[in-house]
Amino acid sequence: MDVKIINPFLNSTINVIKTMATMDVTPGKPTLKHGNRAFGVVTGLIGLAGDNAAGNLVLSFDQGSILGIVSSMLYEKFTEVNKDVVDAVGELTNMICGGAKAELVTLGYSIRMATPVMLLGKDVEVSQLTTEPVVMIPMKVSTGNFVVEAKLSKTE
Amino acid sequence: MDVKIINPFLNSTINVIKTMATMDVTPGKPTLKHGNRAFGVVTGLIGLAGDNAAGNLVLSFDQGSILGIVSSMLYEKFTEVNKDVVDAVGELTNMICGGAKAELVTLGYSIRMATPVMLLGKDVEVSQLTTEPVVMIPMKVSTGNFVVEAKLSKTE
Question: How large is the ipTM?
Answer without folding.
Answer: 0.94
